[in-house]
């Protein structure tokens, strides 16, 4: 099994959590900007990540991958069978992948516009060093338009949603019923960019969006997120933090990039 990914894509993080929760072994193929998009297109008929290859099956889109894994590897179940719980879990997954993802992405871009270290660290690992240096050296005022797009109203809406979530997870370990589900994994994956977990690497861990990463009202939410990681990883540790297990033979494809808003 192979996962074509961009390491810091929240939707790839979602698939890694799914694979880990299913206790499935897989090989990571890190996708980088450039000509490799052609390779990914030849494989999957499109250029977005994540893409999962399992034998003859090639599946794109994190939601479609989740459904594929549930059918091909039903244990442990991550999509509830009971109709009401199933509907709620899928609704929360869709909300995380759309509304929450949009708010998180804009907040991250706004933070990165003022943080050259964050801008450089988020680039794919195979990005040429001169380009990384150029991106890091860009003046913040050239990126100021991001802040205008993500205005105060949008930020307040995101904060309100996060505070509601924080209150919700204070009372329950899981968002649906009393077991780990796709809802938990989808929401946890989107929180990746707001406060980076240890698995994001030395440059990024504990960094995030100012006003969110250091907001005491949201501490229960990020503690819950870290707990979901531990449950999905079944106690396995990689590097200095909890992350979904990856096969030792990580490969770099000359390949595609994280396509941003359209990736799911």
Helix-strand layout with pairing:
Layout: E1 2-5, H1 10-21, E2 27-35, H2 36-44, E3 51-54, E4 57-60, H3 62-72, H4 83-113, H5 116-121, H6 129-137, H7 145-149, H8 152-171, H9 182-190, H10 219-233, E5 251-255
Parallel strand pairs: 1-2, 2-5
Antiparallel strand pairs: 1-3, 3-4
Helix pairs in contact: 1-3, 1-9, 1-10, 4-8, 4-9, 8-10, 9-10
With helices defined by DSSP (H or I, 4 residues minimum), what is the helix count? 10
Indicate the structural class: alpha/beta
Strand order of the largest sheet: 4-3-1-2-5
Q: In the residues, how many domains can be counted?
A: 1
Structural overview:
It is a single chain. With 264 residues, this protein is α/β, with parallel strands linked by helices. The protein has one domain: Glutathione S-transferase Yfyf (Class Pi), Chain A, domain 2, CATH 1.20.1050. Helix content is 48%, strand content 10%. It is built from ten helices and five strands; from the N terminus they run E-H-E-H-E-E-H-H-H-H-H-H-H-H-E. Strands 4-3-1-2-5 form a five-stranded mixed β-sheet, sandwiched between helices. Strand 3 and strand 4 form a beta hairpin. The protein is globular, with a radius of gyration of 18 Å. The relative contact order is 0.20. The model is unreliable at 134-145 and 235-262 (pLDDT under 50).
């Amino acid at each position: 099994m192979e996962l074509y990914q961009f390491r810091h894509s929240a939707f790839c993080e979602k698939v890694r959590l799914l694979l880990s929760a299913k206790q499935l072994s897989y090989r990571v193929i890190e996708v980088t900007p450039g000509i490799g998009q052609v390779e990914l297109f030849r494989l999957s008929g499109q250029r977005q990540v994540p893409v999962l290859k399992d034998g003859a099956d090639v599946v794109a889109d994190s939601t479609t991958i989740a459904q594929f894994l549930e059918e091909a590897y039903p244990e442990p179940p991550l999509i509830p069978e009971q109709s009401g719980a199933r509907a709620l879990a899928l609704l929360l997954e869709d909300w995380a992948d759309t509304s929450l993802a949009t708010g998180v992405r804009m907040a991250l871009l706004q933070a990165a516009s003022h943080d050259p270290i964050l801008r450089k660290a988020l680039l794919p690992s195979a990005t040429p060093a001169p380009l990384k240096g150029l991106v890091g050296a860009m003046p913040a005022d050239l990126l100021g338009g991001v802040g205008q797009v993500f205005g105060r109203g949008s930020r307040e809406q995101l904060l309100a949603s996060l505070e509601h979530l924080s209150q919700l997870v204070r009372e329950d370990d899981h968002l649906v019923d009393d077991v780990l589900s796709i809802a938990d994994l989808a929401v946890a994956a989107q929180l990746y960019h707001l406060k980076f977990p240890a698995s994001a690497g030395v440059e990024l861990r504990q960094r995030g969006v100012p006003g969110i990463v250091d907001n005491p009202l949201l501490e229960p939410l990020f503690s819950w997120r870290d707990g979901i990681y531990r449950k999905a990883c079944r106690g396995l540790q990689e590097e200095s933090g909890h992350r979904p297990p990856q096969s030792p033979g990580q490969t770099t494809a000359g390949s595609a990039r994280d396509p941003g808003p359209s990736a799911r």
